[in-house]
Design a protein that fits this description.
The complex is a heterodimer of chains A (about 250) and B (about 300). Chain A is α+β, with helices and mostly antiparallel strands and about 250 residues long. Chain A has 2 domains: about 160 residues, Immunoglobulin-like, CATH 2.60.40.3880; about 30 residues. Chain A contains 6 helices and 12 strands. Chain A starts with a helix and ends with a helix. In chain A, about 30% of the residues are buried. Chain B has one domain. In chain B, about 70% of the residues lie in helices and about 5% in strands. Classes of the chains: A alpha+beta (about 250), B mainly alpha (about 300). At the A-B interface, β5, β6, α4, α5 and α6 of A face β1, α3, α5, α9 and α10 of B. Chain A: Keywords: Membrane, Signal, Transmembrane, Transmembrane helix. Chain A: It comes from Sphingomonas gilva. Chain A: This is TIGR02186 family protein. Chain B: This is Probable membrane transporter protein.
């Protein structure tokens, strides 16, 4: 009985591999380095869909690409008008807000999968699993979540681009994702999903590392680890520049 | 020319920041104020996070006041005794300010407090300056000199215990008065990234009754050291000093300050003060509007 179950389990991937297509994804840059001239980057996500036996089925499959930044625990504050001026009033905490989230798909995501599947795979800005940890009402959490999405959308940190994934001959796909200059550093993931008939047939993940490099990395590390020396350097710089300008102008 | 700011974590146009520093420097050279009161709001307006703006603005004020201090040293316009007491108070104040800063940050009210303080301070000082400048301009037009006010310190100052002699200022008062003044400006420096010159100068003139020939020099001396202390406190507590941002601001402001000082010699001082009052009041008015109008962003997100 048990042996048969184990055998069945072992054979399962083989059986599925025959029936299901496989994704071979890649990204144009595995490492994005932030240097002084960094104004953002353009990421190209591309790859191939391998169908079993090389036979492309008749009904069309869709591709969804999601690039996610490291999750953060965030505190959100909401301004309200109190006694004539706008002040921070209510607040909410989310334990797992992505610092960056971009989704591109070959068709609008709402037409591809139902709400439940969207929530499972975190497909779409309205399906993010933010893990609220405040005792507020669901409506309040909803309001704050919408506020977070709206804010990050306008700063370019949350992006939704339906219809921007190109599929060539039902086999090759490509999508461009813009990484803005305000992007946080850390380990990013690029997930690719193959979807047909409202079901996720295959998924694959690639990691992307975004980090400060060279001088920028040095400055950020210095400010964090050698803060006294860093402060003294800032003071020395301002004294030197102020003095130099004075000395220079006295000559003319 | 875009350049990435490693602490603010965003990229800015270097020429815009240098130009902004230059504009502030021009004003500071013309009017003899640090100009921090303009830098911080302008940087926030440009999209720099408020904490980084305040921290880096204080670094800029240090640079802008250096050459002023040298100039006044040559004219013996610095009362080191008085300045030293004020610096001691200022350093103490910036530490207190750091405590207030983190308390307000935790309660989420730091932005509102910064704004309200700005509006009150700029509105109050701007209003007083406008009134005084209008009187002076009117007097110049009529050709009648304004009667100089009798120099004496405030009765409250006289009531403080312990009296020291401050020779260059020509005063015999309690050191507690300049110390308290120093503490207050230290707190303002830490919270707002301003040097506090335009609070210090009137307070030194009208509260302490200091001689006019040492007021500006001593105030610059105090600003120099207190902004240095504030930079250090920011660097070690909020870690928000962006050295690239500060350098860009400094390049603009030290050049602007020199140009401004030259420009100032060609304009009558009464009109200069009137212009400064107008600038201060416009900034105050704009910030006050921001308090009452519905802000662009209802939500703020702080990563923990």
């Amino acid at each position: 009985m048990r042996l048969r179950a184990i055998l069945l389990l072992l054979c399962a991937p083989l059986a599925m591999g025959q029936a299901k297509p496989v994704l071979v994804p890649d990204v144009s840059q595995r490492d994005i380095e932030i240097i002084y001239s960094f104004t953002g980057a353009e990421l190209l996500l591309f790859g191939a869909i391998l169908y079993p036996g090389g036979r492309v089925p008749d009904d069309r499959a869709d591709i969804v690409v999601v690039v996610k930044g490291p999750v953060q625990s965030v505190l959100m504050r909401e301004k309200q008008k109190v006694a004539g001026i706008w002040v921070n009033a209510e607040s909410a905490r989310f334990r797992s807000a992505p610092s960056f989230y971009a989704i591109a798909s070959s068709r609008p995501i709402g037409e591809l999968v139902d709400e439940r599947t969207r929530a499972i795979y975190e497909l779409g800005l309205d399906s993010l699993q933010l893990s609220p940890i405040t005792s507020g009402s669901p409506e309040q959490q909803q309001r704050f979540a919408a506020g977070l999405v709206d804010l990050r959308k306008r700063t370019g940190l949350f992006v939704e681009e339906p219809g921007s994934v190109e599929i060539t001959d039902d086999v090759l796909y490509r999508a461009n994702i813009d990484i803005p200059a305000r992007v946080p550093v850390g380990r990013f993931t690029a997930e690719t999903f193959l979807i047909r008939d409202g079901r996720v047939l295959a998924a694959a993940v690639r990691d992307i590392e975004i980090r400060k490099s060279g001088f920028e990395r040095f400055v950020a590390a210095a400010a964090d680890q050698w803060s006294v020396t860093y402060g003294l350097a800032a003071v020395a710089l301002s004294l030197a520049l102020g003095w130099a300008a004075g000395a220079l102008f006295r000559r003319f | 020319m875009d350049i990435y700011l490693p602490i603010a974590n965003l990229s800015v146009n270097a020429l815009v920041i240098i130009g902004l520093g230059g504009l502030v420097g021009l004003l500071s050279g013309m009017f003899g104020v640090g100009g921090g009161f303009l830098t911080t709001p302008l940087l926030i307006f440009y999209g720099i996070p408020p904490t980084v703006a305040a921290a880096s603005a204080s670094t800029q004020v240090t640079g802008a006041s250096v050459s002023g201090v040298f100039a006044h040293l040559q004219r013996k316009g610095v009362d080191f005794h008085m300045g030293g007491v004020m610096v001691a108070g200022g350093v103490l104040g910036s530490l207190i300010g750091a405590g207030i800063f983190s308390l307000l940050q935790a309660s989420g009210q730091i932005d509102t407090v910064i704004l309200v303080l700005y509006v009150l301070m700029l509105g109050g000082v701007g209003g007083l300056m406008l009134k005084e400048a209008l009187q002076a301009v009117g007097a110049v037009r009529r050709g009648t000199p304004v009667a100089a006010k009798k120099r004496r310190h405030h009765p409250l100052v006289a009531a403080l215990p312990l009296r020291w002699r401050f020779y260059r200022s020509g005063l015999y008062i309690s050191p507690l008065a300049p110390l308290i003044l120093g503490v207050l400006t230290g707190i303002l420096t830490m919270l707002l990234g301003v040097g506090g010159g335009f609070i210090m100068v009137p307070a030194m003139l009208y509260l302490l009754g200091m001689g006019t020939q040492v007021v500006v020099g001593t105030s610059l001396f105090q600003i120099l050291f207190v902004t240095m202390a504030a930079t250090m406190v920011h660097a070690t507590t909020t870690k928000a000093v962006d050295i690239v941002l500060a350098a860009l601001l400094l390049i603009g402001s030290v050049i602007g300050a020199q140009l401004g000082a030259r420009l100032a010699r060609r304009v009558k001082p009464e009109y200069l003060r009137l212009a400064l009052a107008a600038v201060v009041l416009v900034v105050a008015f704009r910030l006050a509007l921001g308090l009452g109008w519905r802000p662009d962003e209802i939500y703020t997100v702080i990563a923990e």
